[in-house]
Specification:
With 234 residues, this protein is of the alpha+beta class. Helices cover 25% and strands 23% of the residues. A hairpin with a 2-residue loop joins β6 and β7 (85-91). α2 (127-138) packs across α6. It is elongated, with a radius of gyration of 28 Å. The termini are far apart.
């Protein structure tokens, strides 16, 4: 009886030692590493280069305090409002190449965790006041109704519509993997409408617009449209 009790005490002591050292599958086992942070989107999609502070909100995963936000290599202090949202007040004074800036979220050590693009316009442009008058004068004669690419500039309402004949965020019928206008991204590789009205080169589908024989878009008109897309297609 005494021998049996000693054996039980020895087993209890061994179990306590293993638990303290992290052995077995008890509470002392190491936890899984935290997944790295990711970056998925940004709000707003575009801003105007003004030289004043502008608020950005970036969505992603696994954000922690101490991370920073970088715009084309310039770092700004950031605030982690949750594990999925980080915000920063940034200052953009010049328009970057192609009207697009690269926004990165950086770790505590300064490593880039992920990037997202931000449109940067040289001026505040709206569809109603600045862009539609150009489309009305130079494009509406051909693009009315469902003809010619199913793009309808008959009225401001049809141009701004979220239906298949609209312009903003609608998949291109000629280049189905792209949007007619990708809000905040005026690069030719992203927005088919910008691709089609560029002064040279070969667009992803069809030919450059307006067609030969029609009144051409001026350099100023093209830049107005580019600024509109870059600034958020408002």
């Amino acid at each position: 009886m005494l021998t049996h009790s000693k054996k039980n005490l020895s087993l209890i002591a061994l179990t306590m030692i293993l638990t303290a050292c992290g052995g077995g599958s008890g509470s002392g086992a190491q936890s899984s590493p935290v997944p790295p942070a990711t970056v998925t989107s940004i709000i707003p999609y575009g801003v105007v280069a003004s030289g004043s502070a502008q608020a950005l909100s970036i969505k992603g995963t696994n954000f922690v305090n101490g991370m920073t936000v970088s715009v084309d290599g310039i770092n700004f202090p950031a605030t982690v409002t949750s594990s999925t949202v980080i915000t920063a007040n940034v200052t953009i004074t010049t328009v970057p190449t192609n009207n697009v800036a690269n926004v990165a979220v950086k770790s505590l050590s300064g490593a880039t965790l992920g990037t997202v693009t931000l449109g940067v316009a040289s001026a505040a442009i709206t569809l109603a006041a600045d862009v539609y008058p150009i489309l009305d004068a130079k494009c509406r004669s051909c693009h009315t109704g469902a003809a010619n690419g199913n793009l309808d500039f008959a009225t401001y309402a049809t141009t701004a519509s979220a239906s298949a004949t609209g312009l903003i965020g609608i998949p291109s019928s000629g280049c189905p993997s792209k949007f007619r206008v990708a809000v905040g991204d005026p690069r030719r590789t992203s927005s088919v409408f910008i691709d089609k009205i560029s002064v040279s080169g070969t667009p992803c589908s069809g030919t450059l617009m307006p067609p030969t024989g029609s009144p051409a878009l001026t350099t100023t008109e093209i830049q107005t449209i580019v600024d509109w897309v870059a600034g958020g297609a408002n």
